[in-house]
Design a protein that fits this description.
With about 425 residues, this protein is of the alpha+beta class. It has four domains: about 1-90, Rossmann fold, CATH 3.40.50; about 125-180, ATP-grasp fold, A domain (Dna Ligase, domain 1), CATH 3.30.1490; about 190-320, D-amino Acid Aminotransferase, Chain A, domain 1 (2-Layer Sandwich); about 325-405, Alpha-Beta Complex (Glycinamide Ribonucleotide Synthetase, Chain A, domain 4), CATH 3.90.600.10. Helices cover about 30% and strands about 30% of the residues. The chain is built from 13 helices and 25 strands. The chain has helices spanning about 10-20, 35-40, 50-60, 70-75, 80-85, 95-100, 105-115, 125-135, 160-170, 240-260, 290-295, 305-310, 385-395; strands spanning about 1-5, 25-30, 45, 65-70, 90, 120-125, 140-145, 155, 180-185, 190-200, 205, 210, 215, 220-225, 230, 265-275, 280-285, 325-340, 350, 355-360, 365, 370, 375-385, 400, 405. The strands form six sheets. Strands 1, 2, 3, 4, 5, 10, 11, 16 and 17 form a nine-stranded mixed sheet that branches. Strands 12, 15, 18, 20, 23 and 25 form a six-stranded antiparallel sheet that branches. Helix 1 links the parallel strand 1 and strand 2 (about 25-30). The N and C termini lie far apart (about 45 Å). Bound molecules: adenosine monophosphate and glycine. Glycine binds near residues 285, 289 and 292.
């Protein structure tokens, strides 16, 4: 079997690594992949290509299944196009991908099906938004409706900050259209949790929980990033929290997917806020998370491809996922300066006696050498019988990795 995997991050390296363990899979073409997939068993990087070029590639190379990593092609409708061509692809339809592609669509969906989420109001008109801001109690959260490269959510401490955000999003149009519509949302206080899952449109099977570390500096200080580290399972997701999540979020979500006739065979990510008032859904992502995937897949005992095939055949209700009983602690190593400006192009050295697994994100293979090519360069994942053991392993191993301008948080997994 040949697989086509779309994407270029650490998440895709982790997916490719996990898929490569399936004995029936011969080759995984990664479009475009990165320096990690270039070196991974069974993997071959190919050109990124447009949707139409990928369709041609899938036909010419007898691709058994295409798996989509990032949200962008999903929101553009890659799944619908592949289906029109009779090609097998794993991911939500364009309509279902709006659960991530439009915050307003997703909030309306949550409200309609009774998924517990923060109160909100939507605005297309700048003056009305400004008027509303005068009546709000602060802090308040402002969100651009469309995708904005992870920068479309701002927590505003006061009216002045909020007015500036509305000005930037709606008038200056800093997201090229994505912020013309905004959601103004109640601020929720609590701890966050990520739950990845797989769905066939009728059943959702949640993965073990994870905890991202979004801020760039220790003790959750500094600006937000794509993720500086992850631990799994998330110690705040107790059995009680999981139960509440299933009742108040997962079940109404699947009901909505069915009633709206969304064609959804793919991964689904729930971004949760655990508060004193209950478990709230902050957002859906219609894909796996990064770096959550790197931290969670190494704990999965089941074969990932069999689950994908099971979901594709609408057979998830008969399947279960087996997890090994250990913990993972993953530290993301970034180019210093990230999420702002940084220099790249430095050699990455990884000593042979490293015990954890390294998933490359922003790294390319140049003449046989790994070089930094992005902000989040790599994720180092270690497993242990306890969270503490896993994090000690990661911080020991990290000394065996080196590149110029390297930076990482020292407190991943310290609760
Ligand atoms: P989102 O893309 O909606 O998940 O937002 C990105 C991040 O903003 C989340 O991971 C939270 O840290 C934060 N956030 C979003 N919505 C809220 C909210 N209603 N209250 C507090 N924090 C939020
Ligand atoms: N780690 C959050 C995300 O992938 O969006």
């Amino acid at each position: 079997m040949n697989i086509l995997l779309i994407g270029s991050g650490g998440r895709e390296h982790a997916i490719a690594w996990k898929l490569s363990q399936n004995p029936k899979i011969e080759k995984i073409y990664c479009a475009p992949g990165n320096g990690g997939t270039a070196l991974e068993k069974k993997c071959q990087n190919i050109k990124e290509g447009s949707i139409e070029e990928l369709i041609n590639f899938a036909k010419e190379n007898k691709i058994h299944m295409t798996i989509v990593g990032p949200e962008e092609p999903l929101i553009k409708g890659i799944v619908d196009r592949f289906n029109e061509e009779g090609l097998r692809i794993f991911g939500p339809s364009k309509k279902a991908a709006s659960l991530e592609g439009s915050k307003n669509f997703s909030k309306e969906f949550m409200k309609k099906y009774g998924v517990l989420t923060a109160e909100y109001a939507t605005f297309n008109d700048k003056d009305k938004a400004m008027e509303y801001l005068n009546k709000c109690t602060y802090p308040i959260v402002i969100k651009a409706d469309g995708i904005a490269g992870g920068k479309g959510v701002v927590i505003c401490g006061n009216l002045k900050e909020a007015e500036k955000v509305i000005e930037d999003f709606m008038v200056k149009d800093i997201f090229n259209g994505s912020g013309k519509k905004v959601i103004i949302e109640e601020f929720l206080e609590g701890v966050e949790a990520s739950i990845l899952s797989i769905t066939d449109g009728e059943t959702i099977i949640p993965f073990i929980s994870a905890k991202d570390h979004k801020k760039v500096l220790d003790n959750d200080k500094g600006p937000n990033t794509g993720g500086m580290g992850v631990i799994a399972p998330n110690p705040f997701v107790t059995d009680g929290v999981m139960k509440e999540f299933i009742e108040n979020i997962l079940k109404p979500t699947i009901k909505g997917i069915k009633e709206e006739n969304m064609e959804y065979k793919g991964f689904l990510f729930f971004g949760l806020m655990i508060t004193r008032k209950g478990i709230y859904l902050l957002e859906y992502n219609v894909r796996l998370g990064d770096p959550e995937t790197q931290g969670v897949l190494p704990l999965m005992e089941s074969d990932l491809y069999e689950l994908i095939e099971g979901a594709y055949n609408k057979n998830l209700k008969n399947l279960q996922i087996k997890w090994n009983r250990s913990h993972s602690a993953s530290v993301v190593m970034v180019s210093s300066g990230y999420p702002g400006e940084y220099i790249k192009g430095f050699s990455i050295e990884i000593k042979k006696d490293i015990t954890g697994k390294v998933f490359i994100g922003g790294g390319v293979l140049e003449k046989g050498n790994l070089k930094t090519s992005g902000g989040r360069v790599l994720t180092l994942v270690s497993l242990g019988d306890s969270l503490e053991e896993a994090r000690i392993c990661s911080y020991k191993d990290i000394k065996k990795i080196n590149f110029e301008n390297m930076y990482y948080r020292r407190d991943i997994g310290l609760i």
